[in-house]
Amino acid sequence: MKYRIFISTGEVSGDWQGAILIEALQSYAQKQGIELEVLALGGDRMAQAGATLLGNTIGIGSMGLVEALPYVIPTLIVQWQAKRQLKRSPPDLVILIDYVTPNTALGYFAKQQLKVPVVYYIAPQEWVWSFNRKNTNAIATFTTKLLAIFPQEAKYYQERGANVTWVGHPLVDLMARVPDRATARQKLGIAESDLVVALLPASRSQELKYLMPVMLEAAQLIRAKLPQVKFWLPLSLERYRPTVEKLLQQYDIPAQIIQGQSQLLIRAADVVLSKSGTVNLETALLKVPQVVIYRVSKITAWLARYVLKFYIPFMSPPNLVQMKQIVPEFLQEAASPEIVSQACLELLLNQAARQQMLQDYDEMQLCLGGEGAIDRVAKEIFDLLRSND
Question: How far apart are CA 361 and CA 122, in angstroms?
């Protein structure tokens, strides 16, 4: 028996989740004696996991209305090339991971032209920030099965007509595999007595522009109060290194740069200062206090507020899980170096504040489902393939 699957995602986090999924699918297929071929739109991690890339989407992602404009044509080209190849040789099933606008187009294409089942895994967070029902209705229309990682996500899409199974969050398993703090520090060469702040500014190029200067000004203020603090920064993509090095020099922050190993560094850190995103949930599951910031261009922020009437209760995943503030988060103008540095210093110096956050992390984790999420995802996908034979 042989199956052919196509997976579509974008950006660094999608590439990582796609690679994890491919490994789980291949493991399941091997145990069942099934031959599996995986085609994909994604990145290097998915290719290393065994996918044949029809296009690389890691460098063409953005957050924001204005920021997305330079990537519209490259995205359309990659999509057109992938659709042409898929039409010549259709897969047995299509899996979409986040990446809302491009994947919505691919979802309709798969349903209407390829006429194959469509699985949405790690669906867009419409349940948090949807200001119209267009995307939600589209996803419910073309998706054969939606595999939800958050209980709120499952409820939201189910109420709007999607066929939903809540599988739990794969990060629960993945973060459990990360070495403990002492081992992580030993592997990275960090002394136990070192006071370490990890800076995680970007998985997209625009984030270096809007977030890293704020982080580095905050770092200057932290150093003024605690000169012994050491800063570490993991690169999400090696091509960001020249920009990162230039900014560190400009702001006179002697941070240690490492390639990858972000989870190891998070585990080793005393506090993490990061952009909003999946990394916030990783940090929470690794039980490290954190401060979260996010900024987009002033034009995008103005359009979102006053034209689109955009509103979100929270932006970081740990706060969204229970819809309460577990970690301090600062958006747009609120993300000032003074405010951000004070939040970091509070977590570095106030043991009670640290302990409260760790306690809240434990409660939050109970809402993410038990271990084995990625194996449940693989089983659901193969069950759907078999039912379609």
Answer: 21
